[in-house]
Amino acid sequence: MKKAIAQKPYTHYQCGHCESGSVSSIVNNYGFNLSEPMAFGISSNIGFVYLPFVRIWGRPLYAWRMFPQSIVRGVEKRLGIRFYVKTYDDEQEAMEELDRLLDEGKPVGIQASIAYLRYFLGDFRLPGNMHMTIVTGREGDEYLINDPLWDYQTRVHRDDMRKARFARGPSAPKGFMFYPLEIPETIDYKKAIKKSIKRVVFMMLQPMFPYYGVFGIKTLAGMIKRLNNNPNKKVIRGHLNQIVMFQEEIGTGGGGFRYMYAAFLREAYDLLKIPELLEASKKFVAIGDKWRLAASSCGKFIQGKTDEVDLEKTARLYRICAEEEKEAYLLLKKIKWK
Amino acid sequence: MKTNEVPQDGKRLLKTTLVHYAVNDEGTFEKIPSNGWDPGYYAGSNLQDEFKELAEQSLERVKKNLASPLEYFMYKAFMDLEGLAQFTGIPKRKVKKHLTPKGFDMLDDATLARYADVIYADVETLKKFKSTLK
Question: What ipTM score was computed for the predicted complex, to two decimals?
Answer without folding.
Answer: 0.86
